[in-house]
UniProtKB/TrEMBL annotation, chains A, B:
GO terms for molecular function: DNA binding. Coiled coil: none annotated. The keyword Membrane does not apply. The keyword Transcription applies. SUPFAM superfamilies: Winged helix' DNA-binding domain (SSF46785). Residues 13-111 form the HTH hxlR-type domain. This is HxlR family transcriptional regulator. Keywords: DNA-binding, Transcription, Transcription regulation. InterPro entries: HTH_HxlR (IPR002577), WH-like_DNA-bd_sf (IPR036388), WH_DNA-bd_sf (IPR036390).
Length: 119, 119
DNA sequence: ATTTAGACTATCCAAAAGGTAAGTATAGAA
DNA sequence: TTCTATACTTACCTTTTGGATAGTCTAAAT
């Protein structure tokens, strides 16, 4: 039985475990944007097309709970909160880059026109 | 609008597109096992713990429709069908390897004991 | 006559993921 | 006094994903 339990969930493979950290529509685009510098909630929101408040909040919370990002609260009004990569989060960047490049290759292969942007 | 339509679906990023090819619980474990040689349905089934007939069938169909694997039918009874990687499928292998290694790293990080097996 | 093999298909269901829309708190600006 | 900014929360749905279970087809073996 090469499977294992962690945080109330059963995983069958390391791949599944990796995807629990990076998978879904939003986690990688968020992490990617934090690689340069810390960002505020609304900066991320403006920079990531289509994401809703709810999704952004929930994904940030998941990334934080898995230790990939830091959340720093500035006690001012209106509120200010900054998100940044942890060391663990930085380790994800090359993986994301690999997947992104693969995605671009697939897009090329499929003959789709797509602007080479940031994620 | 850096997003695009393809095959009746809307994608926002290359990452999403890549995950539509490799994402989910089963696609990468399946592809990984085809890298050495073609495999039959029941060989894959025995080699991939926990996968059900339905999941194996549906994932093989998806991989085939995206051009990552070939399906060869031998007209005998009982039926014999072999699955193998296409050139496009082979391009996915290094990506899967990267993700798998990352998964192992995360497992180490989390202090989980896990046997270094095949996917 | 029944069982077996191999590769499925068909239903039905439960859980997870993700989207819509509205509401909250606070202080300063208009 | 109403409005604005910021970072959320809550409730409610719909869609997608995945799991359980049973059934199908054919010919040969028992």
């Amino acid at each position: 039985m090469p499977e294992f339990f962690h945080d109330k969930r059963l995983y069958y493979t390391p791949i599944e475990f990796a995807l629990s950290h990076l998978g879904g529509t939003w986690k990688m685009p968020i992490l990617w944007r934090l690689q340069e510098k810390a960002q505020r909630f609304n900066e991320l929101k403006k920079d990531i097309p289509h994401i809703t408040d709810k999704m952004l909040t929930s994904q940030l919370r998941e990334l934080e709970s898995k230790g990939l990002i830091n959340r720093e609260i500035f006690p001012v009004i209106p509120p200010k909160v900054e998100y940044s990569l942890t060391k663990k989060g930085m380790k994800a960047i090359p993986i994301i880059e690999t997947i992104m490049k693969y995605g671009y290759d697939l897009i090329q292969d499929a003959g789709i026109e797509f602007p080479p942007k940031k994620a």
